[in-house]
Amino acid sequence: MAASEKARAKTEQAVGKAAQAVGRVTGNEKLIAKGRAAQAAGKSREAKESLKDAGRL
Question: Are 1 and 49 in contact (CB under 8 A)?
Fold first, then answer.
């Protein structure tokens, strides 16, 4: 996995987790949903890069 893509995936996941936590504290459902979406995007990016790496072996 390219280091920059790996970092980007982890960053998306962390930002999503933080947004979700803030949304829960404030009771903001939209922010919770945005946090979940950011986490999912990060996980899918990470999976994509893992598949790319598997193809290179």
Answer: yes
